[in-house]
Amino acid sequence: MIKPKFKETIPVFFVNNEIHIGEEDGVAGIIEDPNGSIKYLISLIDGKNTIEDITEKVLLKYPNITSQEVHEAIKSLDEEKYLEDNSISPRVMGEYERERYKANLNFFSLFTSLEDSKFEIQEKIMHTNIALLGIGGLGSQILYHLAGLGFHNINALDFDTLELSNFNRQLLYSEENINELKTVLAKKRISEFNPNINLNITNKRIECSEDVMNHIKNSEYVICVADKPTLYIQDWVNEAAVKLRKPLVSGGILNTRGRFFSVIPGKTGCVECHKKTLMESDRTVNEELNNMNQVNFQRNNAAISPNVAMLAGAMVNEVLGLVTGISKPISLGKMMELNFSTYQTYSISEWERQDNCPVCHSILQH
């Protein structure tokens, strides 16, 4: 039976004849309590009493209050996301996981009601398989975030070796490991940081969509922060993710701004749909791409660690929303831009699925 309690993140204060619940703007509330009945009700919402117990005790002390009013009061507190069911236990998490991911659980509880389990959210994360393409500046910080959240199954790919110029933004590595493979170093460091993680590494340069398909085929979600070759990598990753129906979150840094987008194959438009949308609205786009291709354009790095951290956090939160459903990703079918100078995030382009998209069309045939 449900045993409601106030969430660990929701403080309750008693000030004169008022009850203050919560502390965040838009979440906190103030309740008038002239006769003390609500204060008594709240004192019973301690995770030990069932709703029936609470009702019985309130009616005994305040006979003029009805059981319906008690139930409606508890329902109102639940609708504000103040309460959780203390009788819910994790299915697979032990004491170790509950302590290690304690702050995660407190955060996830903010999105649950009495009928939901914060443990199920964490357990979903622990059992979800993520494919990560690129573990350089952005990818190494994303890998740290995934490990902190408790993604226990990660397949990471990179081909590069560690260089001295990497250290202004790549926090996963040490100078003593210069010239060593980033994949090997990442596996060692992440296993120290979170020994529960099964991190499979692939040391390979991506040269076609088949390479991407081979890497992501056993994963449920794909994160792409690989940036070479500049003009082809997004097309290859897009084709592989769409064909295998793997949700994709992709992004990169463009000097003073970060950009990211998300694709759910079969539901949102893909990268090719985006290109077609841009070309239809601006005929110079195709000409610009052709010119860049002719000069073999490769983008030079101008990323600094705090900017990388902001974009990495935004992208991992998008993945978190896709995996758990606690929030809807803001970048579905949109190119989002994060301005590192103003901290504003906004959409710079949006697109729908194109009926004549050859990439999306390929999955409709299966």
Description:
The mean pLDDT is 93. The protein starts with a strand and ends with a helix. Helix 5 packs across helix 6 (118-127) and helix 10 runs parallel beside helix 14. It is of the alpha/beta class and 366 residues long. It has 2 domains: 4-85, Outer Surface Protein A, domain 3, CATH 3.90.930.60; 128-364, 3-Layer(aba) Sandwich (Rossmann fold), CATH 3.40.50.720. The strands form 3 sheets. An 8-stranded mixed beta sheet has the order 8-7-6-9-10-11-12-13, sandwiched between helices. It contains 14 helices and 13 strands. The chain has helices at residues 37-44, 51-61, 67-79, 95-100, 102-109, 118-127, 137-149, 182-193, 209-216, 233-243, 271-281, 284-294, 305-324, 358-364; strands at residues 4-6, 12-15, 18-21, 29-32, 83-85, 129-133, 153-158, 198-203, 221-224, 248-254, 257-263, 334-339, 345-350.
Short description:
The protein is of the alpha/beta class. It has 14 helices and 13 strands.
Please give a handful of descriptors for the protein shown.
366 residues; Outer Surface Protein A, domain 3; eight-stranded mixed β-sheet; Rossmann fold
